[in-house]
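SEQUENCE-TO-STRUCTURE ENTRY
===========================
Question of interest: how does this chain fold, as expressed in backbone structure tokens?
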Amino acid sequence: MVHIEARDITLTYQTPSGAVPAVHGVSFGIETSEFLCIVGPSGCGKSTLLNIMAGFLTPTGGEIRIGGAPVRGYGMDRGVVFQDFAQLFPWRTALGNVAFGLEMKGLPKAERDAIALEQLRLVKLENFARSYPHHLSGGMQQRVAIARALAYNPAVLLMDEPFAALDALTRDEMQRLLAEVWRTTRKTVIYVTHNVAEAVFLADRVLVMTPHPGTVKTEVPIRLVRPRDPLSVEFLDYQKQLLHLLGQEQRT
């Protein structure tokens, strides 16, 4: 069943130097509980597309439909996780950050704290519920951000290179954690990344984009059993395929 539809999405920025097309004619569908990764070179409009799906940007053409309904701005049916650690409120504890969306929904404190603690348990941070962001490592802060995005039970999780600023070992750990969280929650996930190994590790399907303006070049289904072995021949073959598609685009 199609959960999200992007229908001929186009967005053009108006600048003092004239119109700058960011994405043009982008169309694709996402099934319920599917994990879709979007890859492409810098400037291909990956983050722009994610922000349109989040409702933060309005396309100049086309539309996004979630569950058959057109997106008209941001809604509580979508949780968003960014790359920047500053997305957390520094004056709130981990528990307070995760409970924020529930507070905005008007849930009683005892109920929202119980839900927030359960989400922190899901990302293995229940022992740090009373810690403030500056007491947490980068990876731990991103786990809090994921827990916060999940706490108010959105149908869709939108993630914009959330692990890009982490060191390699922490990034690998976070990828494994996210795969585990996804298997537990079965959310529909749209995940933007520059890292093709990350895309192969996480995705059911990878959307490859081309730049200037951003369009869809092709889609690559990842038919590997989970959990995935990054050192397997099959994994490396998918990685080579994506690198070839991206490298071929960069040479044109």
Summary: The chain has a mean pLDDT of 91. Residues 40 and 209 are 5 Å apart (CA to CA).
